[in-house]
Amino acid sequence: MRTVPAFDRFYFGCGERDKGHFWWLPDARERQLSCGFDYPPPWGALVDNRLQPSGALQDVQGSTALHRKDGWTAIAWWDRSGPDKRPGCCSVYAQRGEHDFTAMVAAFRASFPWAAERLTFELVLAEGGAR
Length: 131
Prior knowledge:
The protein has 2 helices and 6 strands, in the order βββββααβ. By secondary structure, the protein is α+β, with helices and mostly antiparallel strands.
């Protein structure tokens, strides 16, 4: 098993050219960790299609849920803004510490501008979106 590098934030989603979802660290232009091999804490593989809003908001682009677990905060949203346009495409931004929704969106935009710039929709906290 490989050692996961130390990090305080990550993005899970599509890259600029790749179909499929991968783990990214700040300022990266290439995927950093292979999906299916390394799963950064604390949600592990659950970031892929499990943290986003469900029910009536299932697969509604920009619909976002906020989560806190084991000293981390995450925002997770439905997202077909990248090269992968299939239903169920999603993104997750997670950062150490306890943060509110507005701070998390700002931190995502600052940490992963290449992913944030392609969004053609706003990230909106879903009703009951905090878990």
